[in-house]
Specification:
mainly alpha, about 90 residues, 3 helices
Amino acid sequence: MNREQDTAYKTLKGVRKSKTGRNILVPEAKNALDSFKVQVASDLGINFSQADKGSFTSKDCGKVGGEMVRRIINQMKQEMINSTQNNRYQ
């Protein structure tokens, strides 16, 4: 198998829309997510507001991202519980 055939299954032309592969689904939420990121980072003792973003370790970035996801999931669970309870009593 030559090199061209070997990598053909790994990429599909036209599928990726950005260089990093991360597409912003709701552009209006970008500012809110950025401020949420800074808030979570400060809660963890990481100063994400500094200008040099390249000085952060992967571990710190992972902590912040993981905690953001954890908090969003917990908030959604709570909203689902509240929604279920409100619908039950109507």
